[in-house]
Specification:
The complex is a heterodimer of chains A (204) and B (278). Chain A is globular, with a radius of gyration of 24 Å. In chain A, strands 1-2 form a two-stranded antiparallel sheet. The longest helix of chain A has 36 residues, at 2-37. Chain A has 204 residues and is mainly α. Chain A has a domain at 113-204. Helix content of chain A is 43%, strand content 4%. Chain B is of the alpha+beta class and 278 residues long. Chain B has a single domain, classed as 2-Layer Sandwich (Alpha-Beta Plaits). Helices cover 27% and strands 14% of the residues of chain B. Chain B has helices at 4-11, 15-24, 46-54, 104-108, 135-139, 156-159, 181-193, 207-211, 228-232, 258-263, 272-277; strands at 32-37, 74-79, 89-94, 114-116, 123-125, 146-147, 174-175, 217-221, 238-239, 251-254. In chain B, strand 4 and strand 5 (123-125) form a beta hairpin. Chains A and B meet through helix 6 of A and helix 7 of B.
Chain lengths: 204, 278
């Protein structure tokens, strides 16, 4: 009697163990591993793009993120650019107070974490994509100009690159067209536009 | 110039394939080339120094010798082996000759880590793909390729002078001259800022050309009929090293001395050590 019971019970125990192990590994692989892989680092101060691009200030991307005359993209503006308006606090926010007291008055650059920092060997020219291919900033960077807060900067502990290079989705399938800044995205767009480039076109 | 791509187009009877090949060739193609006047070169080595600085070549580690060091541009002195009144010598800066046809390093690379850039004709090296087998170094008729035996090391002060337009290479990969491709990026970027795709030739000048005190090196687009180089290579004193191999290098040399021109086709005589050890 006992033997018969065991015979019936055993395969289902095996199935259960297999199923729970499989599910456990999926949970580890998809949820726990990404949490371990990425380290969150806070930005030195909070910044709202929305305040600057909205009705209050009405600025455009190019007002701060400048392409210089020789074609170099100057990226995040220097603190001197902020000082043009914020030589003393305009509003009441604690972040603005911190900006003025810690960075503008001592004339110290803000140590931003850069979400889109690429590996050394990747070459990208904002000038040729904006001035020649007429791409909009949003097409690659998403609606970042409308964001009220900076998102958390996450760095890959193994490679040292920002999570935004791989993309938010750990499977590598982007949920938005602007998510991720990997080479296949560059290649896809170049192919779509009939460009056939050699490697050294975008690698240095 | 009779290169592999035009050979393909001429010899393919299949219309479809021909169209496919034509399609892959960009209309805005240039062919960058260089010419060195050996009668002007006095062997000062400024080109070699400028090259190393421009391209982030790390300082040599201890016990480096001529075989293990990295010298994208190396100046050789070649004597004519005559007695005093006739004795003469020539300095030859040797670097990647940017072969256009059946490029030896491209053909042998198992990793596709070397390719001819379709828009500029520059033979490019992609260190991230290189597995370090050094087959290309064996295949290169000019010994113009160098292997990173160690990880590059710069002292703290030297780190400040690294060129941001050139990525440093890591241990275990091969590297070589790429006609200062970083400067082409910069020139293109400048043109793009002004809304133009065509670069100003004065913006793209490799470091060796710029540094040569005797103006012995000319650089430019061989496809552009009005460029200085496409006129200069028509001179009867122009030659290329080992042109009998048929690799169609895009680096030309010029000398009024007949023995120098003949020397360019000679294989090196083996040294006594090589005779013994093979």
């Amino acid at each position: 009697m006992l033997k018969r019971k065991l015979k019936i019970a055993l395969p289902s125990t095996g199935k259960f163990l297999f199923g729970s192990g499989f599910a456990g590994m999926l949970v580890i692989g998809w949820f726990i591993f990404p949490m371990v892989l990425y380290k969150s680092e806070p930005q030195p101060i909070q910044f709202s793009h929305k305040v600057h691009t909205g009705e209050q200030a009405g600025m455009a991307c190019e007002d701060c993120h400048v392409i210089s005359d020789d074609g170099r993209f100057l990226g995040i503006p220097a603190v001197a650019k902020c000082a043009e308006c914020h030589s003393s606090p305009i509003g009441e926010s604690a972040n603005e107070k911190s900006l003025v007291e810690n960075y503008i008055i001592p004339n110290k650059e803000i140590p931003w974490h850069i979400y889109s920092r690429q590996p050394d060997n990747a070459y990208f020219s904002h000038a040729s994509h904006v001035r020649l291919a007429h791409l909009k900033c949003e097409e690659c960077h998403g609606p970042i100009g409308e964001s009220a807060r900076l998102k958390v900067y996450q760095v890959n502990r193994i490679s040292g690159y920002s999570r935004d290079i791989w993309g938010e989705n750990i499977s590598g399938i982007p949920s938005h067209p602007w998510e991720g800044m990997k080479m296949d995205r560059c290649v896809h767009c170049h192919e779509k536009n009939g460009r056939r480039d050699g490697c050294i076109e975008c690698h240095k | 110039m009779h290169n592999l791509r035009s050979w393909n187009v001429e010899n393919n009877t299949s219309k479809g394939l021909e169209n496919l090949i034509m399609e892959t060739i960009s209309e805005k193609k240039s062919q960058y080339g260089m010419m060195i006047d050996l009668d002007r070169c006095n062997g000062c080595g400024a080109c070699a120094v400028a090259c190393a600085v421009e391209n982030n070549v790390p300082p040599a580690y201890q016990q480096t010798n001529t075989r293990t060091g990295i010298t994208w541009m190396r100046v050789f002195e070649i004597p004519n082996d005559e007695q005093f009144p006739q004795s003469d010598s020539v300095f030859v800066p040797m670097f990647c000759q940017q072969c256009e046809n059946e490029t030896p390093c491209v053909t042998v690379c198992p990793q596709n880590a070397v390719e001819i850039d379709p828009l500029t004709g520059i033979v490019g090296q992609i260190p991230q793909r290189c597995l370090g087998c050094r087959y290309c170094m064996a295949a290169c008729p000019y010994h113009a390729r160098y292997f990173n035996w160690r990880d590059p090391k710069w002292t703290d002060g030297m780190k400040l002078q690294l060129n941001p337009d050139v990525a440093p290479r890591m241990r275990g990969v091969v590297e070589k001259c790429n006609f200062c491709h970083g400067r082409l990026h910069t020139a293109r970027q400048k043109a793009a800022a002004n809304g133009s795709e065509k670069i100003d030739p004065n913006d793209y000048v490799p470091a060796c050309v710029e540094s040569c005190p005797n103006k012995a090196i000319i650089f430019g687009d061989l496809e552009d009929g009005s460029s200085e180089i496409s006129q200069a290579i028509k001179s009867k004193n122009t030659f290329r090293f080992l042109s009998r191999l048929g690799t169609e290098p895009k680096v030309y040399f010029n000398s009024g001395r007949a023995w120098v021109r003949e020397m360019a086709e000679q294989a090196l005589t083996r040294t006594k050590k090589e005779e013994i050890y093979g």
